[in-house]
């Protein structure tokens, strides 16, 4: 399946890759796939999903939980890392969506995500006037 995704919310590069993976898995499930091999050029995402890396960031933990839940919908699931230079088609699709705003095409499906697929949390930070940037004079 080939599709482009338009995020109607701010997302970091890693969050965007998780959103794309989760959407891909959901679409494959909806299409009746029993076995899924997904590819990503993100070493971080692949290693986190495979359990080779750990994260403490709350949003990444939620994404990992969502991916784990989606994995149970398939008889088999593999996530394989591919070199960025071999991911030219995905890069093209990621840039294509922004240029297709009002253009309709029969070949490429554009998925709009109005909000993240995981719950958002708000973290407040306090900025003290005396931090490491304060001059020592």
Give short descriptive properties of this protein.
137 residues; alpha/beta; two-stranded parallel ribbon; 4 helices; RNA-DNA hybrid ribonuclease activity; 4 strands; RNaseH-like_sf; nucleic acid binding; RNase H type-1 domain-containing protein
Q: What features would you describe in this structure?
A:
It is a single chain. The protein has 137 residues and is of the alpha/beta class. It is 37% helix and 16% strand. The chain has helices at 13-30, 43-49, 58-71, 88-99; strands spanning 3-7, 35-40, 76-81, 109-113. The N and C termini lie far apart (61 Å). InterPro entries: RNaseH-like_sf, RNaseH_domain, RNaseH_sf. One of its GO terms (molecular function) is RNA-DNA hybrid ribonuclease activity. This is RNase H type-1 domain-containing protein.
Uncertain parts: 122-126
Which word captures the global form?
globular
Work out the radius of gyration. 18 Å
Strand order of the largest sheet: 1-4
Order of helices and strands: EHEHHEHE
- The mean pLDDT is 78
Short structural summary:
With 137 residues, this protein is α/β, with parallel strands linked by helices. 37% of the residues lie in helices and 16% in strands. The N and C termini lie far apart (61 Å).
């Amino acid at each position: 399946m080939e599709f482009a995704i338009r995020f109607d919310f701010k997302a970091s590069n890693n969050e965007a890759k998780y959103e794309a993976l989760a959407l891909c898995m959901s679409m494959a499930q909806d299409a009746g796939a029993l076995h899924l091999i997904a590819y990503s050029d993100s070493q971080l995402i692949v290693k986190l999903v495979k359990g080779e890396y750990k994260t403490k960031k709350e949003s990444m933990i939620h994404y990992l939980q969502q991916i784990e839940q989606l994995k149970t919908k398939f008889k088999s699931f593999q996530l394989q890392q591919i070199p960025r230079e071999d991911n030219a088609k995905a890069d093209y699709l990621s840039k294509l969506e922004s240029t297709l705003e009002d253009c309709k095409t029969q070949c490429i499906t554009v998925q709009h995500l109005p909000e993240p697929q995981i719950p958002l949390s708000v973290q407040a930070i306090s900025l003290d006037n005396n931090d490491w940037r304060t001059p020592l004079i």
